[in-house]
Design goal:
Layout: H1 4-18, H2 24-32, E1 45-47, E2 59-61, E3 72-82, E4 88-99, H3 107-118, H4 121-124, E5 129-131, E6 141-144, E7 149-151
Antiparallel strand pairs: 1-2, 3-4, 4-5, 5-7, 6-7
Helix pairs in contact: 1-2
Length: 154
């Protein structure tokens, strides 16, 4: 489970990418400030997890006062195309919200992906290739798994 400081950093990096923030100091501030300290004690009313843009804004109450509110995960969307060399070109095209479910994801891979995503868009936007060949991890391996690799090298 990701600690609260890491969750704050992840949120700040997401804001940096989505809002195209150009100030690393601002991103660091978003990562450092405990936003829940400026709210009344939880549980809190937050935007609903679905139906954005479909009619009136919907809200829900958080189940507790935990500022991590970890029921929604975030991920990256990769566009993968077969390349002319019979390999696969890959690039990040956006974010996705994922409902967390205990026991469905590979815990090791999930933790590694989370750590890599927290390195920020300057890092994950350098991914250019999906490798399916067996190889040892190298510095070009952005995310190296047992049967695949997202690589920063063509």
């Amino acid at each position: 489970m990701m600690d609260l400081d890491l969750r704050r950093r992840f949120f700040a990096e997401e804001l940096e990418a989505v809002c195209k923030l150009r100030s690393s100091s601002l991103v660091d501030a978003f990562a450092a400030v405990p936003r829940e300290a400026f709210l009344p004690p939880g549980p809190w009313v937050v935007l609903a997890d679905a139906d954005f843009g479909a009619g009136p804004v919907k809200t829900r109450q958080t189940p507790d006062a935990d500022p991590a509110m970890g029921n929604i995960g975030k991920g990256l969307v990769f566009l993968v195309n077969r390349a002319s060399d019979d390999g696969f070109a890959a690039r990040v095209t956006g974010f996705v919200a994922i409902y967390s479910a205990v026991g469905i994801r590979d815990a090791w891979l999930n933790d590694r992906l989370g750590m890599q995503m927290m390195a920020g868009p300057q890092q994950w936007q350098t991914v250019t290739r999906l490798r399916r060949d067996a190889h040892d991890p190298t510095p070009a391996c952005w995310l190296h798994g047992p049967s695949f690799c997202l690589s920063t090298q063509n």
